[in-house]
Amino acid sequence: MVQPFDLAPDRPEHIDGILNGLDRYNPETTTVFQDYVAAQCENQTYDCYANLALLKLYQFNPHLTRDETITNILVKSLTVFPAPDFSLCLSLLPPHILSPHLSSATGAHSNPAVGDAPLSEAVQKLSALNAHLCAARYDAFWATLDGDDLYADLVADVSHFEELMRVRIAAVVSQAVREVGRGTLEGWLNLQGKGFEHFVGEVCGWKVEGDAVQVPLNKENEAKGTVVRENVKFDQFTRVIRRAYEQPV
């Protein structure tokens, strides 16, 4: 059963009241939503509906925008892929933020120092991660994340970000395969040795057998034959048969 888009089991009552009332469009609630985003980052909870409401408030009140909060919202949306939350958040950002960051006319390097990156640069960096995830290039995702110190700053506020991403990658893998090579899965999860075996065995509940990892059967990765039966009555063809005997005009 598909859950409602606006459902968030861990949503506090005061946030739910704001979202379901006129205060949702009140600029004074911006700080409340910002604190809620910070709490999501710390408590490993997630509320896309509330985060989108905050981004909508930023649209109406650009002077209240906080770059750090927008970055945290985007990072949190990555942790629920393959859901389209990241794209939904991007759709509420101003066009100039979505444009690639350009170096200054003085020829400065296009990658600013950690902590000094403009929001547009952060969005481009996170969009690159999202592109790897959407294309199931998990090795490239980890290589990109570990290859630039700026990413460490962007995801710093989200507690256990890497662990959350491993869980999501494992969930997607379990929906597609029943067996995967150990070396391949190590690259997808960015884990090796005992850390890999612990995650696969204890967190995922999978079995490591030599150079292969066995994924338990579930309704997503089970191969099922489908038989399509059509119930077509003869009366439905009466018009077709009648036209075959009609004389052309």
Characterization of this structure:
This protein is mainly alpha-helical and 249 residues long. 51% of the residues lie in helices and 4% in strands. It has 13 helices and three strands, in the order H-H-H-H-H-H-H-H-H-H-E-H-H-E-E-H. The protein has helices spanning 13-19, 30-43, 48-60, 67-78, 85-90, 95-98, 119-134, 138-146, 149-154, 161-174, 182-189, 193-203, 238-245; strands spanning 179-181, 207-209, 212-214. The protein has a three-stranded antiparallel beta sheet with strand order 1-3-2. Helix 2 (30-43) packs antiparallel against helix 3, helix 4 (67-78) packs parallel to helix 7 (119-134) and helix 7 runs antiparallel to helix 8. The protein is extended, with a radius of gyration of 24 Å. The termini are far apart.
Question: Can you lay out the helices and strands and say which pair or pack?
Answer:
Blueprint: H1 13-19, H2 30-43, H3 48-60, H4 67-78, H5 85-90, H6 95-98, H7 119-134, H8 138-146, H9 149-154, H10 161-174, E1 179-181, H11 182-189, H12 193-203, E2 207-209, E3 212-214, H13 238-245
Antiparallel strand pairs: 1-3, 2-3
Helix pairs in contact: 2-3, 2-4, 4-7, 7-8
